[in-house]
Amino acid sequence: MSIIASNFKTNHTRKSTASFVKEVNDFLVSEEISNDVYIFPTSTSLDSFDTVSNFNIGAQNAYATQKGSFTGEIGTEQLEEFEIKTILIGHSERRHILGESQEEIAKKFSFYSNLGYKIIYCIGEPLEVKEQGIEQTLEYVYEQFVGIDTNYENLILAYEPVWAIGTGVTATNDDITSVHSAIKSKINKPLLYGGSVKVANVRDICALPGVDGALIGTASWILEDFKQIIKNTKDL
């Protein structure tokens, strides 16, 4: 069964998100889709959405707290208002643009795993590491598991090579297969691929050995494209 997840990043409004979620939900029902679908809207667009059981809404980020004095952050008090129990942790944009250290990420992971949240945990390497070869790539990626309980039952992994995110450059099938097979041999968890996944390539990518679905950015923000992506992978 393929898992299809959409990271809205800093896109869509409260109004457009509500419309988007309703349309996707209706589509899952009408097309009888049984695959798991996730959408991660902006925190300002979180709400109590009426969705089928295989359609989950998650948070892109939250602080490791129930509530408190953390300006600009949200915690479990805000998530629980909308019964949200799914979170994205370790995304490369939070690592590289917003400066989250592995120590901070591990703390967040520990906090949310202790509460039983479904966690999609992101890993991936920048271009200068990729160019050094597969051994260096794997060494870099495995360092992103320091402090992370990879046996956690509600864990989904997402391999996102940083050089392929939002660049239009997709990793080759060989790139994806070699990294996925190495990770899967060590950690027995669903493993998604992310990085310039789109309508045209999603089926081929999700059909690769060791690929259990996709975490999608840009191509998932357009409703018709996201529906087509779900449709293209529904029998995998």
Average pLDDT, all residues: 97
Fourth-tier CATH superfamily name: Aldolase class I
Helix-residue proportion: 25-40%
Order of strands across the main sheet: 3-2-1-8
Low confidence ranges: none
Number of strands: 8
Strand content of the residues, in percent? 5-15%
- CATH first level: which class? Alpha Beta
Given the structure, what is the number of helices?
A: 9
Which sequence of SSEs, written as H and E, runs from N to C?
Answer: EHEEHEHHEHHEHEHEH
Shape: globular
Global Rg = 17 Å
Q: What does the largest sheet look like?
A: 4 strands, parallel
What's the end-to-end separation, in Å?
6 Å
> Can you name the CATH architecture?
Alpha-Beta Barrel
As for the CATH topology, it is TIM Barrel
Give the oligomer, counting copies of the same chain as homo and different chains as hetero.
Answer: single chain
Q: What structural class do you assign from the helix and strand content? A: alpha/beta
Number of self-contained structural domains: 1
